[in-house]
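Exercise 3.2. Students should predict the tertiary structure of the chain below and write it as structure tokens, then compare their answer with the key that follows.

Predict this chain's 3D structure.
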Amino acid sequence: MVINTNSSALTSARFLGESSALLAKSLARLSSGSKIVSAEDDVAGQAVAIRLDAQVRRTEAANTNVGNAISFNQTQDGFLQKVQKALDRMSELAVLAQDITKVDADRSLYNSEFSTLAAYITDVASKSFNGVSLFDGTTRGVTIDSDGTSFSMSGINLGASTYTSVTSSSTVSTTTAAASALTAVKNAITQLATDRATLGASRARLNYTNEQLTVLRDNLVASASRIKDVDVAEESSQFARYNILVQAGTAMLAQANASPQSALRLLS
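Answer key:
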């Protein structure tokens, strides 16, 4: 029996310190919801989780870009629907102006409406979306993934000669002019059909990409969650275990510190 060195107390203090550290770490995991509280908890896992989190953010940004491109495309098609109605009416006027029972005074009335519709199409050609021209014919690259890959969305050009031949030089003031105007309008309608089909194809591709990015984001988030999120049920069990060990260690350290007092009985 010795007094100066209490080996039992030292051992109990060491185990109590270890249990206290484990309890503190378990408490930190439960309070933060993450099983990687500090880098040493899972070095490789933290590195993978950081990369996955960054990819999730880039994927969300790409999805935003795709959504804006879809809005741009829808705005274009909305205008073209009205242009289509205008061209349909202009073709009708071009046929009406060729009526042999009409005089040029009647045709001038048709031409007034024809010119107004032509001016409307010219005005639509100058429209923009957030400062970006809708109908300048520019092919625009849309970012479609987290690596910056681009999809080329074909542009629509309402300033093309097929349209300007209708809007700037066609009239229905005479039967001859009306016949020429009809040919020009029919060509413009054919071009418009092609342009709207192009927009539809681009929008279909963008919609598929939008859905794919949403699914990818969900999978990436789930993958990162499996690496860094704590299993609360499992960690709660560990917390209860460490808590009991700390309490038991505290009691045993108190007993170990008290044991040298029994040496006093030998001196009495």
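Discussion points: Strands lie at 128-129, 132-133, 140-143, 150-153. The chain has two domains: 7-33+231-267, 43-228.
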